[in-house]
């Protein structure tokens, strides 16, 4: 079991999915400063946040908890909160994709 927040793993998983810390923070309802504290292992994550972290990285809640340095048993979540967190994470991921597509289109328009 990890004893600390594995920020390298989280950054790599987010990058593989075309996401970043800002998207993760938004999906989890955290400020950038709060997410930085989580990544520095100076703030614990709650059950709903853990569910979002799992959804955004595409892993199980147990794997997300392990990589966050907490046991899954330490962060129980009720089914409704977990479902809401998963839906919010999906919306945030879609918003990030749309923003990326809009930025790419804007760049193409400027170069034309």
TrEMBL record:
Keywords: DNA-binding. The keyword DNA-binding applies. GO terms for molecular function: DNA binding. This is DNA-binding protein.
